[in-house]
Sequence to fold (737 residues):
Amino acid sequence: MANLETRLSDLLGDRTAKVLASGFGMSSVEDLLRHYPRRYVVRGELSDIGALAEGDEVTVLAEVESVRVRRANGRNILEAILSDGSAKLSLTYFNQPWREKELRAGRSGLFAGKVGIFNGKRQLSHPDYQLIPDGEDVDAAIAEFAGKYLPVYPATAKLPTWKITACQKLALDSLDEIADYLPAQIATKFNYPDLKSAFIYLHQPEDLDQVERARERLTFDEALLLQLILAQRRAEIRSQSAVPRPIRNDGLVAAFEAQLPFKLTDGQIEVGNEIEKDLLQPHPMHRLLQGEVGSGKTVIALRAILAVVDSGGQAALLAPTEVLAQQHYKTISALLGPLAQAGMLGGIGEGTQLALLTGSLNAANRKLVLGKIASGEAGIVIGTHALLSEGVNFHDLGLIVIDEQHRFGVEQRDALKLKAQMPPHLLVMTATPIPRTVAMTIFGDLDISTLRQLPAGRTPIETHVVAVAEKPHFLDRAWVRVREEVAKGHQVYVVAPRIVGGSEDKKSTITERDRNMAALMGATLEEDQITGEGEMTAVEELAPSLAAGALKSLKIAVLHGRLSSEEKDATMAAFANHQIDVLVATTVIEVGVDVPNASMMVIMDADRFGVSQLHQLRGRVGRGKIAGLCLLVSGAEADSPAMARLSAVAATLDGFELSRIDLDQRREGDVLGRAQSGTRSHLRLLRVLRDEHLIEEARRVSNSLIAEDASLLKWPALAAEVESLKAEERSAFLDKG
Fold:
């Protein structure tokens, strides 16, 4: 007999266990049983090819008549022709040429999928199939294959769904009774099956009602475990003591507001009041500030920072990149003016000083900055991960502000908190709008403030899709439009997905930024979900091509991550000073770049980026009083999902609506910390948009359980499961380094 901890090598043998480990990271029976089916195929009577209609979900018994692999639009396309003796049907697979070895002419099998029509002929695109071994009785194969609710699993070439089904059967047949961590009263309340039954219902259902009951139980489990972790974090935060930081009527906040050249929006005032109340409490503030690009989050954060400095404390602003840290330093210095120059020529007595700490500082400057931080002379400290390193000691750290929250995990927050004498207040910010259900899962330990209103003077951004597959000449018109903007005295960004072309840069199809954004949205970003096919535009090739051709005579410069900090700073300074007409860049401009004179952006191969990322990128234009224009250039087909994604971006400037679209198009993944690429995801079934009611129910249940017993000692199996998940999270963070 087996239990959930049994090693797969003991149950299935070393060879199969190695394939499961390499393909899916499985090592135990529980890993296997939690490899859930994507869908189920109802195997009824076998279909006659001649009677098939478009849209039918069918299973056909047929023989492979011919197979060929051809190249089109940068893709390998495998086409096989099936025959049942009276009619023919084609199969199509994209970028799976290895199937040619299986689908040899003369092989018979059962093929299941949805009938489509292409060029007037019936076809199955990416169908599931089970080939009948040579010499095996066809009737026996049909009996095994047809007439059941058969699961279809995420599979690989070495481990097709049929073999996974066989592995699941061996596991379930060997499985002993298992302890159920879900408290009995909760299972009874919602009429959920026990854990073992849920596994059986999912992998070997007798009917679809069993599937639904099992899915709801296991989906609720995922939501509950996550909400319990978040509820424990909230309870822990409330139990801590913090130094209240009231805003003085005659202090830095008042002086700062008096010198602002603009009025705060109603939304900024409302959020500022929420933060002010938090800072008055004897326990730490734990708040998320979300808002669109340009909604004024930095001003609100700075107001909180100055309140803490007024009380004798220090504030640390943690940014994910050196470029963004330097941008914050410059922006805050400009906003504060003399208030940031205490003790210096031109400064005023009641002001403070700013310090910037990044990894690129030389030893002498680092020592100087560390001294100002330790003495408290620098009331405002801005930096990157360098703030987390040893040797950084604060005089009185009272507030931590984290920008671009999704770049950091809970452990990194905690590492900075440990540098405070008392638990500090915490304000985290994100420019990516978050749907409510995502906020309940990812940021369930935080109170949430939202800025929806843009400051006066910001102009709407007009967005258009340039479909070069249909109308190649539209790209020529785009470059003419660039020249027109420059002729008006404006500046233009051109964004490309790669730095260099060819094989050298092939591995960076999905950037770390993409993965981090996916993590924020509760998703695991797969290569085929964002990227299209064929070669991608590269900055180092596009810039000289434009300089010699369509944009000849314009002042063009490049900006990307492989440039040194000095080169990047010099380029951005030149662009900001209007010494450059066109900046050809990667996504390094996505955050922290503010050039009000930039009026236009052209995003090449826009289908290679996620929805939220495109929204962030176009937020770089239209930042002043000049109307913004964004062109999304794509070679994707008109009816492709990629083009639908781009059309959605072009249709709205509502980041909250786009965030829902972005999330809806992606699979949820591990949302406990930052992106844990390569680790086993906790969330396999939960979909934060679809399962909103379950998330809300799980939140209510978790709050009730924690209120009754915060340590969960009344339910030891549940407590163990929660601790196991916490340990996975910690381990993944340490492995990531």
Q: What stands out?
A: The chain has 25 helices and 21 strands.
